[in-house]
Amino acid sequence: MKKNDIDVKEFGKKVDQLFELNVEDLPKLPYPYEDWVDKVYPDVSEARKESTDISLDGILNVAVPKIEDAEEKAKMVANFLEGLKKLLSKEDNWTFLKPFLLSLDNCVGCNTCSGACPVFEESGEVDIYRPLFRSEILRRIIKKYNSPMGTITAKISGHDIELNWELIARLAQLAYRCTLCRRCAQTCPMGVDNGLISREIRKLFSMELGISPQELHEDGTIKQLETGSSTGLSPVALMDLMEFAEEDITDRTGLEHKFPFDKSGADILLIHNAGEFLSWPENLEAFAILFDIAGLSWTLSSEQVGYDSVNYGLFYDDAQYAKVTLKHAEIAKKLGVRKVVLGECGHAHKATMAIGDKVWVGESNIPRESCLVTMEDIVMNEKVMVDPERNNFPVTYHDPCNVTRSMGIVEPQRRVLRKICPQFREMTPHGVDNYCCGGGSGFAIMQSHNFPEWKLQISGRKKFRQILEAFTKEELDPGVRKYVCAPCSNCKGQIRDLLTYYEAWDRCQILYGGLVELIINCMVDVREGYIEWDDFH
Amino acid sequence: MTGIQLFTYFAFLVAFIAILRKVLRYATAPESMRWELYPVPHEKGRAEYGGSYFEELDWWTKERETDLFNELKEMFSEIVFLKGIFHHNKKVWNSSFPFHFGLYMTIGWLVLLMTGGILEAFFGMTVDSQGGFFSTAVYYLTIPLGFGGLALAGLGAFGLFIWRSTDKTQKKFNAPIDFFNLIAFTVTAAVALAASIMYDPTFSFLRSYTGSLLTFSAISSPNVLLTAEIILLAFLTLLIPITKMSHFVAKYFLYHSVRWNDQNNERGSKIEKNILELLNKQVGWSADHIRTGKTWGEVITEPKNEEK
Predict the structure, then answer these.
(1) Does residue A212 belong to any structural domain of this protein?
(2) 3-state DSSP helix/strand/coil % of chain B, to nearest 5
(3) Is residue A123 part of a domain?
């Protein structure tokens, strides 16, 4: 089927695949990638195709089991409608009912949202990726199947839709073609939030039908609550890693350091995304050096969940979200800290500070702060001494959507960058108008089947374009080392994968990392060369 | 009472009930999680770049400074000039702005007609060019607001209709009722303009008609075109609140309860009280990882992820 020939009515059409992606439709990249040829999307394995539905666009990141039996299909349709009722109820969905209803009721169909969506734009304008497309499907289903005389009014209005198993399977997949970056909501003249609608669709599938991506649920929140971290890192393994990290600090800087754990009554409980422990230990090591030299009273937690700020429930399931964030609250309360500081992880910021604002109640309402603010205080009030000349290379900054658009933390990190990076420059656009890295809403950790190609070629393409455009042609020469600062674990994961896929380290010498590494790299109390340019990982 | 008068009362009654129903739908929705979106215009000194109080060290210890003037300024530019759509979809703004501005003028015109009707019906004044200062002012303001408002609203509605009809994407996402609404506006404006130019250029009949509605006295329309004008205007009054053209209700809540709502929860606050009550509600979700039938408080504090 052609990309712009798909009508909302046809979404449940009984065809093997509704739409086929073609890499030749992708928009061209700027210098020096004018001749870049994208890899063809790999096919999902035959065994998978047998068991899992991929009839939306051939891409697989949420496994909807294939059903052949007509009775089973009808049962799923009935369960879906049951879930829909709960999604619209004050009992089952009080958490987001108000913003959800407001967004559901008031789209005027002007399509302004599509112009703001990097997935739609960088896919070559595939109709089904329009932010309002999936919302419109849900609206029509609600109007027809959840309203008095809905069947009649649907026919009269000309906006009919046929709810069947095929439509439900595809809707689940379509909810996972949106990064929940909320850029569309920002441009909507009504204030309608298609990102929220995507999230609510995900919630219905998870909380009623038990369908969610494995990386978010079984390997995400379930594993985190059972083992302590979505990475599977147990408290014992954590301690082993921290020993290694202490040795690494000495090797890198010559400084002796002991990580503080479970210090009751410390001023700060610092919680990192556990991805840092495994993939970017230099990040948590840098925090330790910075906080110690600045003389802060701080601690880490070794209790299960207390050392991993990840909360994938934010992306798909209110109950799983609340279980994780309440565990964080309980640990902070037990330690008796004055405040919790969130490390460089965007979604953990939003989960713990903004959404958590109404979950951390009563005695558990321990104040939470962004590490970007803590770092600004340290650097700008000269609690550590810096030599910006050590950072005299081109640096650009990626705004994590959750920190910026959803929480309004925009300037503290920039004040630091302006002070410590003589060649700092912004991407266009930036701040609250930024583009998502393409790994938002859990995409960064979804590495199975053929989804990585989708997120690198489509949802992350805009960010890669922005990164290239942040540097001049001369600077893009591989002889000039450059740095993309992304203070968010998931964004870093996605940017790492983007730079790898597009061979940007070899072709342009673009490195990525957090903000704290840049601070340590220019601290006069630390040996030069904290950022290891030849160690792209 | 004439038939058109009864229809006008009916239209206003339906409109009132429909708007009230919408307001209650949103106003009575439970306390929801925070879901604001920056920039938030009342953030003093930070709204321009989209900053928030989360940017401050130990933000919970600082006195919150808000900028009501900036919020009002933002509201004014959004309501009057449709600032958002101007920046993000100029093509739509070209028709949407005259349409909305025309509607505001038309509302002003109706208010002045009602004011004139009251002056005539209850105070025995004559609203014309020879009256006292107030009634003369009402008389002279009614004319440009009426003609200007109807012309702009009609042209804007027609422009939107053309855009929705010719844009391939629009056809997919807009129901026939959306096209009908725009035609209804265009036709009403055209008929009202024609009727006024031909038979009621100073709106004296409409003023009397408004007065008759307020005093519940019978009045007959002198000709078919004026009758059509009244019926169409009453029909629009009825149509707007029962279609998504009444998005002004939701827009208020979307901006003030969601998008700009950065109110934080403090210990012992009303928000906290509301949340604690909501945690007692039973969970009906059926997936295996949720213990259906328990309260929210129980489900989210269970020690492990125990499956049913």
Answers:
(1) no
(2) 70, 0, 30
(3) yes
pLDDT of residue B173: 87
Whether A211 contacts A62, CB under 8 Å: yes
The total of structural domains in chain A comes to 3
A386 phi, psi to nearest 5 deg: -125, 155
In chain A, the residue whose alpha carbon lies closest to the alpha carbon of B172 is A7
Question: Is the same domain home to A156 and A81?
Answer: yes
Confidence of residue A3 (pLDDT cuts 50, 70, 90): low
Inter-axis angle of helices A235-253 and A281-293, to 10 degrees?
Answer: 70
- Helix (H), strand (E) at residue A305: none
Instruction: Look at residue A360 in the predicted model and tell me its pLDDT.
Output: 96
pLDDT above 90: percentage of residues in chain A: 94
ipTM summary value: 0.96
What number of C-beta contacts closer than 8 Å exist between A and B?
257
Q: pLDDT band at residue B148, thresholds of 50, 70 and 90?
A: very high
Q: Does A15 touch chain B (CB under 8 A)?
A: no
Pair (A107, A178) in one structural domain:
yes
Rounded distance, CA A516 to CA B287, Å?
41
Mutation site for B-interface testing, chosen from A98, A135, A139, A342 by largest number of B Cβ within 10 Å = A98
**What CATH number was assigned to the domain covering residues B3-31+90-243?**
1.20.950.20
Shared-domain flag, residues A115 and A182 = yes
Residues A244 and A269 in one domain: yes
Cβ distance A364 to A326 under 8 Å? yes
Long-range contacts of A155-158 (CB under 8 A, 24+ apart): A157/B175, A157/B176, A157/B177, A158/B175, A158/B176, A158/B177
A361 plus A398 within the same structural domain: no
Task: Tell me whether A226 touches chain B (CB under 8 Å).
Answer: yes
Residues A370 and A390 grouped into a single domain:
no
Is residue B306 over pLDDT 80? Answer: no
CA distance A283 to chain B (A): 21
In angstroms, the separation between the Cα of residue B104 and the nearest Cα of chain A is 18
Asked if B251's CB is within 8 angstroms of A190's CB, the reply is: yes
Do residue A301 and residue A334 come from a single domain?
A: yes
The answer, as to whether pTM is greater than 0.80, is yes
N-terminal to C-terminal alpha carbon distance within chain B: 66
Give A 322-341 residues with CB within 8 A of chain B. 322-323, 326, 339
Asked if the model's pLDDT at residue A240 lies above 70, the reply is: yes
Domain identity same for A391 and A364: no
Domain boundary residue, one of A332, A356, A376: A376
Domain that holds residue A202: 8-207
